[in-house]
Amino acid sequence: ARREGGPFESIFDFCQRVDLKAVNKRMMESLIKSGAMDKFGERAQLLEGTDALINWAVAEEADRSRGQVSLFEAVADAGIASDFDATPTLPNVAPLSPYDRLQQEKELLGFYVSGHPLESHRRDVELFCTHTSDALEETSPETPVLMAGIIVAIRKITTKAGKAMAMVTLEDFAGSYGAVVFPDTYAAARECLETDCIVMIRGTRDREEAKVLVDEVIPIDQARQRLARAVDVRVLSRVLDDSGVDELKQMISINGGTLPVFLSVATKGHGTLRFRIQGSSVNPTDEFIAKLEAHSAVEDVTLEAIELKREEQPNGRRRRQNGNRNAYAVGA
Fold this sequence. Notes:
Layout: H1 2-5, H2 11-17, H3 25-33, H4 43-48, H5 50-65, H6 71-77, H7 98-109, H8 122-128, E1 144-158, E2 164-171, E3 176-181, H9 183-189, E4 198-205, E5 211-219, H10 223-227, E6 228-235, H11 242-253, E7 259-266, E8 272-282, H12 286-293, E9 298-305, E10 307-310, E11 320-321, E12 325-326, E13 328-331
Parallel strand pairs: 3-5, 6-7
Antiparallel strand pairs: 1-2, 1-4, 2-3, 4-5, 6-9, 7-8, 10-13, 11-12
Helix pairs in contact: 2-5
């Protein structure tokens, strides 16, 4: 149909020109979910209106087969201008969330088309993560790593001792990688170890294979609270005055949290001065950071990440976890 009549101009044009015996409802829904019809409208609206579209197109085809002409076609053929529209009205529904769009693409095609589930967390991934999946192969055995990913597969195992553990496959921006979650860690993180959960994992690179032996699983929405140690607000000295400082302090004081806030001011004669706003700790959500960045005196807002290091016992030996591997911890 496209080769004969050229590109489709709308979803209605598509329904009128294709053979609806070949392109049925399921196929139309697949085309919509995969993004092939995005130029015709919002996916949720097209999906909700699929039945109405097909019924309308079938009725139009039946009329043409009987030699009947609709009022709309008669007016158009006569060259008379009209605002009359015989096409069905698509339902007014809320758009699909970015996550739902991506899940539909992955389900149908096996890969993402319009983005990646980690995209909305890119800032945290780039700040906190030490490795990506494509670098894991070349990473030295037992190297401490902190990585992010969406869980795409999980195989739960029961050990001989009757404890649960899991073999997990995650996907980040660069590809996929495997991780082993031993019983103690699994028990602490059971709720977020499910398919489609987005997490950060802390552990070490396996001695033999390019996979991660996991010490800690961190839900992505807790990453900043658990992996950042401070919020740094860089301000412009030329526009910062006492009232501006008071405004910033007020914004910070009403945001309850655990992370300290530092102001950094570049000066001409004394370099950059950095001081903590006493008595104020914050929860660095996207909304809070956006409010700070919108202030006329603020140049930039950054999070300071804690360092990843091995945890040592008092006698200098590395602590062992789950009885079969070295463990590492995040330290400030």
